[in-house]
Design brief:
- This protein is α+β, with helices and mostly antiparallel strands and 135 residues long.
- The protein is built from six helices and four strands.
- It has a four-stranded antiparallel β-sheet with strand order 2-1-4-3.
- Helix 2 packs across helix 3, helix 4 packs across helix 6 and helix 5 packs across helix 6.
- The longest helix is centred in the C-terminal third of the chain and has 17 residues.
- The relative contact order is 0.23.
């Protein structure tokens, strides 16, 4: 099963992280419930950050992908917008986001919890996070 999580590398080399026996021993992690760059890009489009296509282009490898795990950049503008979300706007955003094709009309509460958790994670850590994928 593919894994997609968010990580603050905290100065660790991306290649060292993906090639290590335990990537989760490096940096700080947010268990992202396998929400990868496609739904994140669609979220960014809902939030008015940029178009889906522009956001997808923002998820670039942080090092040359060679194996089954790799680290991608996470568009800073999308991270900034998630940091700024307030609780009052979450119901409308989550309502729209839950209906994207990738979620198949998913229940809204887990997505709301995801956004609240990601917002807290991004606000509690300095700098910009990356997206870790393992297929």
């Amino acid at each position: 099963m593919p894994i997609s999580d968010v990580v603050f590398l905290e100065g660790n080399d991306p290649e060292e992280v993906v090639n290590g026996d335990d990537p989760y021993s490096f940096g700080r992690w947010f268990r992202a419930k396998n929400i990868d760059m496609i739904p994140l890009s669609k979220l960014g489009e809902i939030l008015g950050v940029a178009t889906y296509e522009e956001l997808m282009r923002g998820f670039q490898p942080a090092h040359p992908p060679e194996g089954e795990a790799f680290i991608l950049s996470f568009p800073e503008a999308l991270q900034d917008k998630i940091r700024e979300l307030n609780d009052e706007e979450l119901p409308e955003i989550v309502g729209r986001w839950s209906k994207i094709e990738e979620f198949g009309n998913a229940p809204e509460e887990p997505l709301r919890q995801y956004l609240v958790g990601l917002r807290s994670f991004l606000n509690e850590n300095a700098g910009y996070a990356n997206l870790f994928l393992s297929i």
